[in-house]
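Allow me, if you will, to draw on your knowledge of protein folds for a short while. A protein sequence and the structure tokens that stand for its backbone fold form the material at issue. I would ask you to consider whether the tokens describe a fold that such a sequence might reasonably adopt. Thank you for your consideration; the sequence and its tokens are set out here:
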Amino acid sequence: MTISWEQSFRRRMRDFEVRRSPQPGEVAVSLKVRVVSGCFHREHSPHAYEIIDQKLLAIPVADRKFAFEEHESGPEILVYLAVITAGATLAKSVIDLLTTIIKARAESVKKGDRPSHPIELIIRRVEGGGEFREETVLRIGHNDMVDPQEIERQLQDAAAKLLRSAKDGGSR
């Protein structure tokens, strides 16, 4: 029996929520860095994963309130989003890790990692009834500038939209 990627995603999110129960005001989300075409994993992007691994090792265990998952299409971070009145926020360590992943992809292409197609940052979640929702945060090529503040701003905007669409019953 073949499991669809949606079923696999639901299982990963459920397992993450079981390992670390949410605090009041937190929502579990996936932050996926996905290559538009081709692969973005260790075999094809060794230079990128060298940089990503260094960043992961530099994050103190006490600050690791996320799960890092590797996939053929690119890395994924499972984390809780703090929902506040003005929107939603993520820990600085998560924003820094996302920025490192995006920069690592650009640097690794210059060192010969292939393919060199653009990547997308996507935020997604599973609703209480098992419904899957996602928002594309940004699309960036390996020659584009990487601005951590812009990544954070766009991520907060996409998170607010994702949470709003859930409250509105899924209207987009």
Q: What stands out?
A: DSSP finds four helices and six strands in the chain.
